[in-house]
Amino acid sequence: MIIENILKNIFVIFLAVLFYPLIIEPIKAIGVDQMNDFLLIISIFLVSVCFANFAFTYEKSNFESKVERFFSHITVIFFLLSLLISLLGLVTAIGIVYPTLKLTFSFLTFLLYTGIVFYDFWDLFRVKVK
Known about the structure:
- This protein is 83% helix and 0% strand.
- With 130 residues, the protein is mainly alpha-helical.
């Protein structure tokens, strides 16, 4: 299970890096006068994704069933990928509106995402496999 989780998290980061160029250009095209609206929208979306991610728990999954195990991992992939891409978009937008804060928010994003990955592992460790 641990190897699966490591591979899942590496896969999410790989996908986010792959999708990043697709999201950066549209964000750069947003007018600076509209960027605050975008930051508000992405913040609301991030709260929703975080809520969904933290509401899900591996404890309710039957890891002995390959189908349930697969769907558990896919569910978390969707949450983590949505979260990471949104965070990257948020940092990009902050860098446009508040260039002096980009490094600070990049670091905070790293801490937040790392914490969520640790939470993912902690939740997995709580699973009781028979």
